[in-house]
């Protein structure tokens, strides 16, 4: 069991916990939206995805984002998941990231989508 992300209080008045696939999904979200330098003891953790959101949209930027996200996920979660595909879209002030991956422990294919507002 691990603390749920983002942190919240459950119906029992305790820190909410997750395990298994939900925990992996939470870890992916943390890698995606953590800016390198944000964590004190792990200054290179994260992929800096939100820093590139305001760059002009282009095929080159989309490819760079995809590679950055995929590389960061492999670096930080490579023991838990095998990233198959990453898709990043900037839609009317919202960033949408979809990740397809295999969970290594049971070879089960998962897909997770994450969204953040820009500003």
Would you write up a description of this structure?
The chain has about 120 residues and is α+β, with helices and mostly antiparallel strands. It has a single domain, classed as Roll (Nuclear Transport Factor 2, Chain: A). About 30% of the residues lie in helices and about 30% in strands. The chain has helices spanning about 20-35, 60-75; strands at about 1-5, 15-20, 80-90, 95-105, 110-115. The protein has a three-stranded antiparallel beta sheet, with helices on one face. Strands 1-2 form a two-stranded antiparallel sheet. It is globular, with a radius of gyration of 15 Å. It starts with a strand and ends with a strand. The model has no long low-confidence stretch (mean pLDDT about 85).
């Amino acid at each position: 069991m691990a603390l749920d992300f983002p942190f919240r209080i459950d119906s029992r008045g305790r820190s909410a916990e997750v395990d298994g696939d939900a925990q992996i999904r939470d870890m992916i979200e943390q890698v995606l939206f953590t800016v390198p330098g944000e964590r004190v003891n792990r200054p290179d953790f994260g992929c800096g995805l939100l820093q590139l959101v305001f760059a002009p949209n282009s095929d080159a930027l989309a490819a760079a984002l995809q590679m950055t996200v995929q590389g960061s996920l492999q670096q930080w979660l490579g023991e838990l998941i095998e990233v198959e595909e990453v898709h990043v879209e900037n839609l009317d002030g919202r960033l949408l990231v979809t990740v397809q991956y295999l969970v290594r422990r049971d070879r089960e294919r998962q897909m997770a989508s994450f969204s953040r507002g820009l500003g």
